[in-house]
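Narrative summary of target 7.
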Amino acid sequence: MELEKEIRWVGSSYGDLLAFPDEARRQAGFQLAKIQAGLDPDNWKPFDTVGPGTREIRVIEQEGAFRVMYVAKFVEAVYVLHGLQKKTQATSRHDRQIAEMRYRAIANVRKA
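Modeled conformation, tokenized:
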């Protein structure tokens, strides 16, 4: 059996996830555990506009729609970039910029 990848929380992403309502937080955590084990989450979509290999977990609960942006393509870890609650159909520019900035920070650290 392959070892699970470590999760590395970037910026405020851990706090973002903790701010989700209980059931949405549990579902997001379960999906992240699947990713750590090398599996795909149940409901996801690519989010390459943030950076190559970025994906978005989609959690839909009574309290609303929640998203967790992450990158799992690197050997050493799953990087969680951002967690948010969706208020509209499109992801806000601000949320995309946060994820893009964090993706660039990871890329720069990996180059060094």
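The chain has one domain: 6-111.
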